[in-house]
Structure formats: C-alpha cells, structure tokens
Design brief:
CATH superfamily of the domain at 36-113: Jelly Rolls
CATH topology of the domain at 36-113: Jelly Rolls
Strand order of the largest sheet: 1-8-3-6
CATH class of the domain at 36-113: Mainly Beta
Radius of gyration: 16 Å
Largest sheet: 4 strands, antiparallel
Strand content: 35-45%
Structural class: mainly beta
Number of strands: 8
Distance between the termini: 35 Å
Helix content: under 10%
CATH architecture of the domain at 36-113: Sandwich
Order of helices and strands: EEEEEEEE
C-alpha cells in the first residue's frame, strides 16, 4: 500500500498474494542480478524537499499529489509522473501540492558493467 515500506524479494522465488480490498496500483522495480542494483525509498511529504541524485540513474515518482519543481520556469509533476535524473543532475527541489508521496528509486550499474 502507499502506507507500506517497500518490500524487497528475489524475483525468481515463487510468491503469491490475495487482495483484501479493491483494486491496487503496484510498483515493481526489477534489475538484473549481478549487473545492476537498486533501492526504493518512500518519502511522504508536506513541505519542500531536496533530492541530490547519487545513483547512476534516479527516478522520482509522484504518487498521490502533484509537485511543483522549484526552478525558474516552475514546471509541475502530476500524480504518477516520473522524473529521470542521472548522477550529474543538479539538486532537485520540489514543493508538494497538498500531502504528497514520492518514491525515489536509485539504479546503479555494478562495476563490471561500466
């Protein structure tokens, strides 16, 4: 759920689940073992946030509210919009439009793949 912390599990292990109430939107992040690593963080927000990309690629997913980028042209992210940043991207400043939730996903190549 949007209130749960991300759950990590091996994708090659059989799993099952049952819905307990209505439809869901599921977020899965999968990377090839031995070639990439990833991390998923859940950030509930009510005020300005700063994100400094440190991974090879960082995905910033807005979930239940929009966000305004605090830049000169101030573009907006709507719910389920995603920003894609690389390691050299500048610090990102976001202001949620209401009570917001972001998932920040870090993707890194393992050294053998550079």
């Amino acid at each position: 759920t949007t209130a749960s912390v991300p759950l990590s599990f091996a994708g090659d292990v059989p799993t099952s689940a049952a819905l307990i109430d209505g439809p869901i939107t599921d977020l899965n992040v999968m990377t090839r073992r031995g070639r990439m690593t990833h991390g998923v963080e859940r950030w509930p927000l009510s005020g300005e946030i700063r994100i400094m990309p440190r991974a090879d690629t960082t995905l910033v997913l807005a979930v239940n509210a929009g966000f305004r980028l605090l830049t000169d042209d101030a573009p907006s992210l709507g719910p389920l919009d995603t920003l894609i940043l690389d390691r050299h991207s500048p610090e990102l400043r976001l202001q949620p439009e209401g009570q917001g939730l972001l998932f920040v996903i870090a993707l890194d190549r393992l050294s053998a793949n550079h």
